[in-house]
Design a protein that fits this description.
about 25% strand, alpha+beta, nine-stranded mixed β-sheet, five-stranded mixed β-sheet
């Protein structure tokens, strides 16, 4: 007798009756969201990233971020974007619900920072979330409270146009993840690092970051990238930066690079932005350093913020849960362009300044400091 059993026999049995003996089952929605949160929500900085990116996609002009205990206790992100009505709020916390993709073709031409529809349900599965939003300025808003994935009825409240997201007690129901969080100082460093880069990526948005009533960042939203850079690194450093611009058929590159004598001991001071998204591309970061040639000391790295614009079809952002790593179709060409553009920008600068010399003043000083010559007596007459 053949020991192999067909799929039909295993499911239905020899008599055609359904046999409920399978071990594979579909996970419930709450457990699925907790699993997704393990990929999307690694730490408080990931929550801040997702909420701020949603605010940027909502065409916000001002974004305020308030933290308590580096976000482990509370994260609040308030914006003045387009807001959501009651129907949108109810759908926003459903898995794979998004307003940023309309069909499968849109996935290969992404022009927004978010698109998967996983962030909000993942955050709500491991925290206490209150979302208040209004699409108009009539003073009427809707509020949804979700704790650990369990949603309460939507309420009508007062509020201004925009969205106010408050996340509390992050990882309260996943103690294993909570146990592996670092100190407040470390977690705050991750949050500020990402907000700083977003502020430089979107200088037309006024950012404000506050931690325990201490303001850590404020940008003016003037649209000048150098102003945002100055808010992050200081005015004196910003004044020394060199502007870089390059245009070609596939890429538009704008940004600032530091002179060779302004450098850091780590690569974190180099910020690469592709279509307004902060990304990490090892090849481009190496090209920035190679553009300086031998001008940098050993094991030192420049300050740089480069914004690259390209057609969305040339870059694939759907390769990493956090959307930090991307693939560029013409990466080798981009690397060469960045390296050459930096080298040309540095060659155009006067790295060793000429000191003006007042010749008349110098001669007067030499005359004062030079001892008078001793006159030799004339030779005796014979």
């Amino acid at each position: 007798m053949d020991a192999r059993i067909s799929c039909n026999e295993a499911c239905c049995g020899n008599d055609g009756m359904v046999a409920m003996t399978g071990r594979i089952r579909i996970l419930d929605a709450h457990l699925a969201n907790q699993i997704a949160a393990g990929e999307v929500v690694e730490r408080p900085a990931a929550v801040v990233k997702e909420l701020v990116e949603n605010a940027i996609d909502a065409q916000a002009r001002t974004i305020a971020i308030v933290l308590s205990q580096a976000g482990m206790d509370m994260i609040r992100v308030t914006d003045d974007g387009i807001g959501m009505n009651q129907t949108d709020i109810a759908l926003a916390f459903s898995r794979h619900a998004t307003s940023k993709l309309s069909d499968a073709r849109s996935l290969f031409c992404i022009e927004t920072l978010g698109f998967r529809g996983e962030a909000l349900p993942s955050i709500a599965a491991v925290a206490d979330v209150v979302c208040r939003s209004a699409p108009t300025d009539d003073g009427v808003a809707h509020e949804l409270h979700i704790r650990g994935g369990e949603a309460k009825p939507i309420e009508v409240v007062s509020g201004r146009k925009g969205t106010d997201m408050c996340v509390r007690a992050l990882f309260y129901n996943t103690p294993a993840r909570l146990k592996h969080l670092k100190t407040v100082h470390t977690e705050l460093g991750h949050v500020t690092d990402f907000v700083y880069r977003l502020a430089m990526a979107h200088p037309h948005i006024a950012f404000r970051l506050t931690h325990e009533h201490n303001e850590l960042l404020r940008t003016d939203g003037s649209g000048q990238r150098l102003h945002a850079f100055a808010a992050v690194y200081g005015v004196q450093t910003a004044q020394r930066m060199f502007a870089l611009t390059h245009r070609c058929a596939d890429f538009e590159i704008d940004g600032f690079i530091s002179p060779p004598d302004v450098h850091r001991a780590h690569r974190q001071a180099m910020t690469l932005l592709i279509n307004g998204r902060y990304v990490r591309m090892v090849g481009v970061h190496q090209a920035i350093v190679h553009g300086y040639g031998t001008m940098l000391p050993a094991q030192r790295y420049p300050l740089a913020v480069l914004s690259v614009r390209m057609h969305p079809e040339l870059v694939d952002v759907n390769v990493h849960p956090a959307k930090i790593e991307v693939r560029c179709t013409k990466e080798a060409q981009l690397i060469a362009i960045v390296r050459n553009a930096i080298a040309q920008t540095l060659r155009a600068q006067t790295l060793i300044p000429l000191v003006p010399v007042d010749i008349a003043h110098l001669r007067a000083r030499v005359a004062v400091l030079t001892p008078p010559k001793q006159q030799t007596p004339p030779p005796p007459k014979v």
